[in-house]
Amino acid sequence: MSKTSKFYNGNCYQNAFNYVDANKGWTLVHGTPTLQAGPHAGKRFGHAWAEKDGIVYDGEKGITLPKELYYAIGNITYTVKYTRTQARELAVKHKTYGAWDKTIQGALHS
What we know:
Blueprint: H1 12-22, E1 27-31, E2 45-52, E3 55-58, E4 63-66, H2 67-74, E5 79-82, H3 84-94, H4 102-105, E6 108-109
Parallel strand pairs: 2-6
Antiparallel strand pairs: 1-2, 1-5, 2-3, 3-4
């Protein structure tokens, strides 16, 4: 499978997919945080992470935070959530770890 990458060399979609696939009960989340610094500051970008019981695990950034704090820091207002089964089906169908949603596909990608 290929990773999605327009401007950055991150593997957030693959990292989040693999984490959810390996850890029962976690939800895969694709969303559009706002970049805080750099030449694209203020722009939304496509990103992926895992959530469970009000906790976010972001394997790309190497952090675990309360969901409310993570969303506040990233100014996250748009997300799409996938169960492990849904993520597996979409990864096979699209031959990519994400993004699968048109709005997220239109954003910059990490």
